[in-house]
Amino acid sequence: TRDASNTDVTNGGTERTFGVVAWRRASKAFGGCMEAKYVLLDVFAEEKYQGNQLAVVLLHQRQSQPPIPDERLLHIAREFNLAETAFITDISPVVEGQATVKARIFTPEYEVPFAGHPSLGLAFTVAEKLLSDERVNEVVLKLPHATIPVTILPQEHHGTALQSVPSIYEMKQAQPEFQAEIPRVSLAALGLDTSVLASSTSDTHPIVSTGLPYLIVQVASKELLDAIQLDTTAVVAFLRSHNLLASATVALTTSLFFYAQDLEDCNLYHARMFCIEQNQLVEDAATGSANGCLLAWLLQSSEPGVLLRKTVSQGEQMGRPSRLFLQGTREKDGYTLLVGGHVIPVGEGILY
User: 94-126 burial, b for 16+ CB within 10 Å, e for fewer?
Assistant: First the structure.
C-alpha cells in the first residue's frame, strides 16, 4: 500500500517502494531466476510519450545465488522489445553525493558496451527511485565499454523551463575514435544524390565512435532530412560493401546518422539515426551516443579550447520528438563530450 508520497505504509510507512531496502527485500528466487522491479522511462523527452523509450530492470541477488545468465537478460530485453533495456546489477553506497552503479545494456538482439539514452535512464532510476531519500548529484555508471559519469543539473543550465521535470541529466562520453572515411559518392547506393548532401570541401564522410560507431552525414536542409527514405536491402548492401556490417558476437555494425543545421538558428540541429536490428532497418527516436559522435566531429574542426553548445531535435518523423543538449570542448589532451536531456517516468512494475 502506498500513500501520496509513494511511501509504503503497510508496515508503518518506513520503507519507500523503490528504495534500495525495499528493492532487496522484494527480490527473491522465482522460477530459477527472481522477481525484479522495473521502471519505464521516456528519455530526451519534453513530456510523457515523447523521446526514446527505456526499461530499467532492478536486479539484486544474494551472494549465494548464481549469476543470472546472459540469455535470460536477452529474453527480458526481447520481452520489452524496446531499442534498449538496461539492468542495474549493483549499487555502492553514496559518497559525497556520488553514487556508483554497475549496469548492463541489451538490445533485443545483443548486449551493447555503451548506449546514450540508457545511461541517462539508469542515472535517473538511481537518483529518483532507488536513492531518492539521499542527495545524489552524480551517478557513475560502470559499463562494459567505459565508466560514464552522469551529472544531475538544474534546468537553468541549458535554459529550459519544464515545470514537471526539475533536472537535466548530462553524461560525459568516452574519448572519440575517428575510425574511417567513407567516399561521398558512395552514398548514392543509399539513394542519396549530391543535391541532398550539404556542401562540403571534403569528398568523404567520417565514422566516429564513443563506444558505438556511426557514419556521420550532413544533409543540406531539414526538409531534405525529413524526406530521406532508406531501404533495408540497400542499407545492408552498402554496409557490407564497406565492411561495416558485423555480427554482434564479433563486432558492432555501423549505424547511419544524418543531421542538418537549422536555417534560422545556427546552434540548432535536426537529426535522424538508422540502424540494422534483427536484419531490419529501424529508426531511433533519440540517440545520445550518436549525438556525442556528432559533437566530437563538430569539435574536430573548431579551435582548441572553444566551447560548443548545441541543441539537437530528433524523432519528429517518428512521432516521438526528442531534445538533446550538447556541450563540449577540444583540448590538446582530448575531448570533453557532454550530452544531456530530460528523463520522464511513465510506469513501473515487477517481472516474474
Answer: beeeebbbebbbbbbeebbebbbbbbbbbbbbb
191, 231 contact by CB (below 8 A): yes
**Helix and strand numbers, DSSP H then E, in the chain:** 6, 22
Give the model confidence (pLDDT) of 71-122 as tens digits. Answer: 999 999 999 999 999 999 999 999 999 999 999 999 999 898 888 999 999 9
Pick the residue with more confidence: 53 or 16? 53
CB 338 within 8 A of CB 31: no
Give the model's pLDDT for residue 248: 62
* Confidence check: pLDDT of 345 > 80: yes
Look at the block and give the residue holding cell 508496515: 11
Question: Which residues are within 8 A (CB) of 74 and not within 5 positions of it... i.e. 6 or more apart?
Answer: 106, 108, 110, 111
- Paired with 48 in beta bridges are none
Would you call 154 exposed, middle or buried from its count of C-beta atoms within 10 A (0-12, 13-18, 19+)?
Answer: exposed
pTM over cut 0.85: yes
The radius of gyration of the chain from alpha carbons, rounded to an integer in Å, stands at 21
86 HSE (CA, 13 A, CB side): 31
